[in-house]
Amino acid sequence: MGNLAFYVFIAVLVVGFLSSAIRILREYERGVVFTLGRFTRIAGPGFIIIIPVIQQMVRVDLRTMVEDVPTQDVISRDNVSVRVNAVIYYRIVDPGKSILNVENYMEATSQLAQTTLRSVLGKHELDEMLAERDKLNADIQEILDSQTDAWGIKVANVEIKHVDIDESMIRAIAKQAEAERFRRAKIINAEGEQQAAEKLVEAGKILAGDPRAMQLRYFSALHDIAGDRTSTIVFPLPIDLIEAMRKKE
User: Fold this and answer.
1) How many beta carbons lie within 10 A of that of residue 121, not counting itself?
2) What is the pTM for the complete model shown?
3) What mean pLDDT, rounded, does the chain reach?
4) Do residues 137 and 159 lie in contact, with contact meaning Cβ atoms separated by under 8 Å?
5) 95: preceding bond cis by omega (within 30 degrees)
6) 48 near 32, Cβ under 8 Å?
C-alpha cells in the first residue's frame, strides 16, 4: 500500500513537471525565455520545453496589430482648432527588444502615436490637413517607425480617419470656397474677353488686307439679317464712305 502511494506521488510529480515544462507556440507566436532572470533565447514556434522554476517564458504575438488612436485636439499652424483621430498598423519584428526595452509595448506605441499625431498636424495648416492627407500619413508613419525601432516594432501604416471642424469654421470655409469660385469665374471671363479681342484684331487685319473681303462680309451680314423674322432691315455702310461724306461737309 505504501509503495502504491509512493508511485502515485511520483506520477503526480512527473505529470505536474511535464505540464509546467511543455509549451506549444503557434506559428505566429514566439517565446522570450529567461533563465534565472537572464534573457536566454527566442523560442518557437512549435514544441518548447521550459525548466520549471528555473526558466520563464513570455509569449509575443507577431501578427499585425491595429491601434485606434483616440481623438486629439490639435491647433493648426493657422490657429484653427480641429479634432483628429487615426489608426496605426504595426507588428513586432524583434520579440526580444519588445520585452526587454519597454515595459508595455502596446501602451507605449499608443502614447507615442498620440503625441506624434498632435506634433505633426500642428505644423500644418487646415487646408493641408484636408488636401494632403496621404503626405501627412507618410510623415507620421516615418516618425513612429524610427522611434519604435528600439522596441522591435515596425509601423506598417498610419491612416488619419477623421478631421472634425467646428460648425462656425465650416461656414467660414464655405464662404471662402464660394469667393474662390467667384474669383475663378471672373478670371475665366476676362481670359475669354482677351482671347476674343485678339481674334477680332486678327480678323480685322485680314479684312483690311483686301476691300473685297469686307464687301463679302457685308453681304453675309445682310443674308443673316434677312433670314430673321423681323421687319427691320439694317444696311451696313462702309466706314470709308462715311469718312468721305464727313470730309465733303
Assistant:
1) 24
2) 0.64
3) 81
4) yes
5) no
6) no
